[in-house]
Amino acid sequence: MVNAGDMNGSGNLMDFLDEPFPDVGTYEDFHTIDWLREKSRDTDRHRKITSKSKESIWEFIKSLLDAWSGWVVMLLIGLLAGTLAGVIDLAVDWMTDLKEGVCLSAFWYSHEQCCWTSNETTFDDRDKCPQWQKWSELLVSQSEGASAYILNYFLYIMWALCFAFLAVSLVRVFAPYACGSGIPEIKTILSGFIIRGYLGKWTLLIKTVTLVLVVSSGLSLGKEGPLVHVACCCGNFFSSLFSKYSKNEGKRREVLSAAAAAGISVAFGAPIGGVLFSLEEVSYYFPLKTLWRSFFAALVAAFTLRSINPFGNSRLVLFYVEYHTPWYMAELFPFILLGVFGGLWGTLFIRCNIAWCRRRKTTRLGKYPVLEVIVITAITAIIAYPNPYTRRSTSELISELFNDCGALESSQLCDYINDPNMTRPVDDIPDRPAGPGVYSAMWQLALALVFKIVITIFTFGMKIPSGLFIPSMAVGAMAGRMVGIGVEQLAYHHHDWIIFRNWCRPGADCVTPGLYAMVGAAACLGGVTRMTVSLVVIMFELTGGLEYIVPLMAAAVTSKWVADAFGKEGIYEAHIHLNGYPFLDVKDEFTHRTLATDVMRPRRGEAPLSVLTQDSMTVEDVETLIKETDYNGFPVVVSKDSERLIGFAQRRELILAIKNARQRQDGVVSNSIVYFTEDPPELPPNSPHPLKLRRILNLSPFTVTDHTPMETVVDIFRKLGLRQCLVTRSGRLLGIITKKDVLRHMAQMANQDPESIMFN
């Protein structure tokens, strides 16, 4: 925005825009913001505050408050995001257990909390206590037998269906934007797109409530991705309380970038990983100032969640682990194999899920979202209940798969045959032959792996909150644990092989299957999302050990290489393209040798460009042009004959300016001349008062020549966040290129449907 100076020689004419009026500088829904203008407006605002701060003590205090408002917003976001994450964790824990039974002493206790408070619980039977009763015990006083199993099975399915139905109904009625993971839309919003209501208060409330319901229903989804959406809703809410952010869409996006970091911080208990995730995966514009504030927001969020202590283990996540055994160079081979598996799984999942989501959008299936959720929930519950590894919550499953087998573990995965003569410390148990429980668990894990792979494809993208982090990690953890047990048994039975001889002697603790599960989880998550640095840091923060960074890096890089060989898009970018959002990915390369003249509008055979002249159009002419076109703005030229460019006027601001002028300025009628120059044009006597609109004119629109390579134009749009760019030759206007034109051209060059770009 360029401010006009005082009118010279204009008599008693008033430039009513000397005073700001409501809604100027705002944007319509499903439109892109002008980053350059937002930056310029913030610079002007800051300059004004700085100059005023020298006038009085009160103005100086106001300038200090303005400077500190960013840190206050970060503090509030961290506190609310951490609190909501803690409440969600506690509620999910209770409602997941509610499907299997209830605590008689206090119905709001989960199974674990119920037995903690019991004085009759023994260590061997720590999962059993008189206060906790399964539904069969409560209703028919039977805990064993076919009838008890069938009753528990039936009630498990009924509870799951009840939770899922309630969730999809709430989303459909109160907040349609609360569905999905939210990360594709957050990425698009952070790139400068406007989606009104997506980060609203209703969306925050409904997403928080329904997230608890869908995770508790046992569906193959997680809460980690949606927590980013929840945290960004918190960021949007607190931004609206401070004019510095509420009136500037560019500044608001800096807050949302920091909020995304806080979301990952509470999802995984990884503050540093959260900051890197925001930087690597979701943010479009990430200045150094935002890095510090993201770090502060992530710190406060993690501290708040730690204070709530939802899991009762002083950790921020359920599957925190610590390993004590080092890894060996020979193990890099299975780690890289897990990376290959993760890349292949990521490719398979993205292609199948996008195909299913496209089918949902283009067929009658999309008209019945409630029925789809009910059917998928019923199938999930029916197949999941018989297998103990799919019956429990996915976070508990990952926790068990990550765990190292200690002397006190009661899991089937730790059913090894012990040497009765063993006298070693508890945390250094040597490799042992697998017992029948381990072999049984391997079969159950293999079936659970196939089930998770298939059902997650159909679950992600339904009209309910659905995260992908946890299901992807579960797939990788199951594959990794099976590979780990295989390597462990191979090392035990063939310790004289050359690859084991140097580092795995009889009686040594050589292989940690839980580490393989963790590496597999990282590989699969990396294959689906294409995260690398932030993924490794998140996994390293989960384990608390620097020693395992190399295996994690090897798996993450391998999975990305393998997945990129089949397609560069991660799941979030694929969903952005599926929905037709105008997102210019900085990771994409444009290598085609086309010019600006090939892309600009109008093209040959099309109607000439709609323009405004600087001082020869009436109010009625401008209103007619606005009514007959749907363009977001109009170039302003000296005259239609010369077509020499003067500036660019936004459609929304023209509408608001004319509306306000009719209300506030006497003498403005349909025949009034609209002028964008400093001085009014010479008019015949008795002419109606002219309307000066120079204040809303952008006098320095971004221009390129018609022979500018499109590679340069694409780079300009990416790095400056432009909405449109004017094409000129020797100062004469030839055409215009919008962000949508660039995206359509890129799609065309990649042999994709250019009409898939639906929004401006």
From TrEMBL:
<feature type="transmembrane region" description="Helical">
    <location>
        <begin position="227"/>
        <end position="243"/>
    </location>
</feature>
<feature type="domain" description="CBS">
    <location>
        <begin position="697"/>
        <end position="755"/>
    </location>
</feature>
<protein>
    <recommendedName>
        <fullName>Chloride channel protein</fullName>
    </recommendedName>
</protein>
<keyword id="KW-0813">Transport</keyword>
<dbReference type="Pfam" id="PF00654">
    <property type="entry name" value="Voltage_CLC"/>
</dbReference>
<dbReference type="InterPro" id="IPR000644">
    <property type="entry name" value="CBS_dom"/>
</dbReference>
<keyword id="KW-0129">CBS domain</keyword>
<keyword id="KW-0677">Repeat</keyword>
<dbReference type="InterPro" id="IPR001807">
    <property type="entry name" value="ClC"/>
</dbReference>
<dbReference type="InterPro" id="IPR014743">
    <property type="entry name" value="Cl-channel_core"/>
</dbReference>
<keyword id="KW-0472">Membrane</keyword>
<feature type="transmembrane region" description="Helical">
    <location>
        <begin position="515"/>
        <end position="540"/>
    </location>
</feature>
<feature type="transmembrane region" description="Helical">
    <location>
        <begin position="153"/>
        <end position="175"/>
    </location>
</feature>
<keyword id="KW-0067">ATP-binding</keyword>
<dbReference type="GO" id="GO:0008021">
    <property type="term" value="C:synaptic vesicle"/>
</dbReference>
<dbReference type="GO" id="GO:0015297">
    <property type="term" value="F:antiporter activity"/>
</dbReference>
<feature type="transmembrane region" description="Helical">
    <location>
        <begin position="332"/>
        <end position="356"/>
    </location>
</feature>
<feature type="transmembrane region" description="Helical">
    <location>
        <begin position="68"/>
        <end position="92"/>
    </location>
</feature>
<keyword id="KW-0868">Chloride</keyword>
<dbReference type="GO" id="GO:0005769">
    <property type="term" value="C:early endosome"/>
</dbReference>
<feature type="transmembrane region" description="Helical">
    <location>
        <begin position="441"/>
        <end position="461"/>
    </location>
</feature>
<keyword id="KW-0967">Endosome</keyword>
<dbReference type="InterPro" id="IPR002246">
    <property type="entry name" value="Cl_channel-4"/>
</dbReference>
<feature type="transmembrane region" description="Helical">
    <location>
        <begin position="255"/>
        <end position="279"/>
    </location>
</feature>
<dbReference type="GO" id="GO:0005886">
    <property type="term" value="C:plasma membrane"/>
</dbReference>
<dbReference type="GO" id="GO:0005524">
    <property type="term" value="F:ATP binding"/>
</dbReference>
<dbReference type="GO" id="GO:0010008">
    <property type="term" value="C:endosome membrane"/>
</dbReference>
<feature type="transmembrane region" description="Helical">
    <location>
        <begin position="195"/>
        <end position="215"/>
    </location>
</feature>
<comment type="similarity">
    <text>Belongs to the chloride channel (TC 2.A.49) family.</text>
</comment>
<keyword id="KW-0050">Antiport</keyword>
<keyword id="KW-1133">Transmembrane helix</keyword>
<dbReference type="InterPro" id="IPR046342">
    <property type="entry name" value="CBS_dom_sf"/>
</dbReference>
<dbReference type="Pfam" id="PF00571">
    <property type="entry name" value="CBS"/>
</dbReference>
<keyword id="KW-0406">Ion transport</keyword>
<feature type="domain" description="CBS">
    <location>
        <begin position="600"/>
        <end position="664"/>
    </location>
</feature>
<dbReference type="GO" id="GO:0005247">
    <property type="term" value="F:voltage-gated chloride channel activity"/>
</dbReference>
<feature type="transmembrane region" description="Helical">
    <location>
        <begin position="368"/>
        <end position="385"/>
    </location>
</feature>
<dbReference type="GO" id="GO:0005794">
    <property type="term" value="C:Golgi apparatus"/>
</dbReference>
<feature type="transmembrane region" description="Helical">
    <location>
        <begin position="468"/>
        <end position="487"/>
    </location>
</feature>
<keyword id="KW-0547">Nucleotide-binding</keyword>
<keyword id="KW-0812">Transmembrane</keyword>
